[in-house]
């Protein structure tokens, strides 16, 4: 079967136009090649419109893992995508360039999306995808829910800002300039990553945190059923000895990587963490 698909693909690549035309009607067989686009797609499309999601959405770090396991998935090869006969493929800048080029040559309609760097960009992306799949009204509804969750995360007027650090497996964190940094600021936090010298995404040494702890550590969840060396930092006894100087709240790693609907849960996690340190009225 794979040989037949590969042969057909090779023949089509030679004859196909360079670029697909935009869809003229509501797509009925949509394939997504990116887990963050998957999350938006399942929120705005009918289930029977979805021909396949990316295989990443079946992993534990996905916010839609249970739903994703009920839908077909693809590992992103052009042969797999072609066999699904899609009329729209959602791709990202992180999708395989070889696959993207092959789909263009095959005249399969694709839509390429970047990675939102702000809350506003993420909401715009939600609206664009919803319109593409023929459900602009669902895009507006989802945009309103994201906006409401972000607004609800803002602390009461006059609340003191709190220093906080996102701290995940292997000390992974984010500094100034990321979407999560914007969300933290909106939720009343001062991102402590900057004082450890981190800009963008990267790792912060445990020693730096212990020597100069933030008021609250937004820590990932170590998985007792799947222990890893990277997770050991989250259970390190040095962090426990900071009790009284630093509080700790849970910020699951599944909320780190995507925007769109994931912002709703992320904003709520930050709202609860901030309330944990606010004095009672």
In short:
The protein is of the alpha/beta class and 281 residues long.
Shape: globular
Question: Class by helix and strand content?
Answer: alpha/beta
Helix content: 25-40%
Oligomeric state, counting identical vs distinct chains:
single chain
CATH class of the largest domain: Alpha Beta
Count of individual domains: 2
Describe what this molecule looks like in 3D.
It is a single chain. By secondary structure, the chain is α/β, with parallel strands linked by helices. The protein has 2 domains: 17-115, Rossmann fold; 156-277, Nitrogenase molybdenum iron protein domain (Rossmann fold), CATH 3.40.50. It is built from 11 helices and 11 strands. It has helices at 2-15, 35-44, 65-68, 78-83, 97-105, 119-132, 136-153, 179-186, 206-211, 237-240, 262-277; strands spanning 30-32, 50-54, 73-74, 88-92, 110-113, 162-167, 172-174, 189-191, 201-203, 216-219, 247-250. Helix 10 (237-240) links the parallel strand 10 (216-219) and strand 11 (247-250). Helix 6 runs antiparallel to helix 7 (136-153) and helix 7 packs parallel to helix 11. The termini are far apart.
Protein traits:
single chain; 281 residues; alpha/beta; Rossmann fold; five-stranded parallel beta sheet; four-stranded parallel beta sheet; 11 helices; disordered N terminus
Helix-strand layout with pairing:
Layout: H1 2-15, E1 30-32, H2 35-44, E2 50-54, H3 65-68, E3 73-74, H4 78-83, E4 88-92, H5 97-105, E5 110-113, H6 119-132, H7 136-153, E6 162-167, E7 172-174, H8 179-186, E8 189-191, E9 201-203, H9 206-211, E10 216-219, H10 237-240, E11 247-250, H11 262-277
Parallel strand pairs: 1-2, 1-4, 2-3, 4-5, 6-8, 6-10, 10-11
Antiparallel strand pairs: 7-9
Helix pairs in contact: 6-7, 7-11
